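In this section we walk through a basic example: taking a raw amino acid sequence and producing a predicted 3D structure, encoded as discrete structure tokens. The instruction is simple. Fold the sequence below.
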Amino acid sequence: MSNEQGRIFRDAWIAGVTKHYPGEPKPGYVAPWEETPDWERESVAAVYEQVRAFVEVSEGNTSKLSREQKGRFVALCWIAQIYRHIPDPKPSYVADWDELPAWQRETDADIFERIERAN
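The resulting token sequence is shown next.
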């Protein structure tokens, strides 16, 4: 997986958290790429690639999806990465879309749209 793609995802995450998080986000939410754990770097690059491929195989018609649909796709791809790297994750790490806080849903949609623009 590409380090560059992972950085784009991480930068979009930090921008989304900064924009949508109510109050002061946890330091780990906005930690720079260099301080991000290896498993998380690998995971964000994998999700970036899944979104990129989805945009490509739909021939750009992901632009017709709603923000919610885009965010749901990112969230679901992320949950799969959590299960891949964490044998027994906390329920909040693998929460379904409707259980996510609004700031996280908005951030996930922002991430999709950032990747969509890059392709």
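Looking at the output, two observations stand out. The mean pLDDT is 95. Helices lie at 3-20, 38-57, 67-85, 102-118. In the next section we compare this with other chains.
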